[in-house]
C-alpha cells in the first residue's frame, strides 16, 4: 500500500463521533488554491509542540507552513531517512522523516476552526434527517 493511501485509510481517524468536529482530518478534508502542482493533494497536520497547523501536498511533498499565505511553500526532506523532514517554522520542534505516520500530528476540524482556518475546510455533504 502506498504512503498516501495508507494515510487516507489509517490516519483519517474515526468515521463517526458524537462530536464530528473532533475527528482528525485527512486527505480530502482541506480545500484551497495550493499552487504547488496541477493536482494538489493537501494533507493537514499540526506541530505537536506548539500546535501550528500546516499542510503538506502529498503529490509534491511541498510544505505550506503558513496557511494564511499559502502561496509560499517549501520542500521537505522526502528522500533521506537518516535526516529529519523539517523543523517547525514557529518552534524548535523537529519533525521526523516519517512524521505523517505519527498520530500526534493529527489536526481536527475544531482546531482548524479555532485557529481561524475554517475557510480551508472542504464542504461536507449532510444527509437531511
Describe this structure in words.
A four-stranded antiparallel sheet has the order 1-2-3-4, with no helix packed on it. It has a two-stranded antiparallel sheet with strand order 5-6. The longest helix is centred in the first third of the chain and has 8 residues, at about 5-10. It has one domain (about 20-120). Residues about 1-20 and about 125-129 have low confidence and may be disordered. It is globular, with a radius of gyration of 14 Å. The protein has two helices and six strands, in the order αββββββα. The chain has helices spanning about 5-10, 110-115, and strands at about 40-45, 55, 60-65, 75, 85, 95. The protein is α+β, with helices and mostly antiparallel strands and about 130 residues long.
Amino acid at each position: 500500500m502506498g504512503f498516501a493511501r495508507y494515510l487516507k485509510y489509517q490516519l483519517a481517524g474515526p468515521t463517526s463521533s458524537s462530536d464530528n468536529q473532533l475527528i482528525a482530518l485527512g486527505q480530502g478534508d482541506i480545500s484551497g488554491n495550493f499552487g504547488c502542482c496541477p493536482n494538489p493533494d493537501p494533507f493537514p497536520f499540526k506541530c505537536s509542540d506548539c500546535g501550528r497547523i500546516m499542510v503538506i501536498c502529498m503529490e509534491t511533498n511541498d510544505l505550506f507552513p503558513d496557511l494564511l499565505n499559502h502561496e509560499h511553500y517549501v520542500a521537505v526532506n522526502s528522500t533521506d531517512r537518516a535526516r529529519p523532514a523539517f523543523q517547525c517554522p514557529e518552534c524548535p520542534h523537529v519533525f521526523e522523516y516519517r512524521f505523517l505516520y505519527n498520530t500526534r500530528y493529527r489536526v481536527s476540524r475544531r482546531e482548524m476552526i479555532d485557529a481561524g482556518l475554517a475557510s480551508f475546510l472542504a464542504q461536507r455533504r449532510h444527509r437531511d434527517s
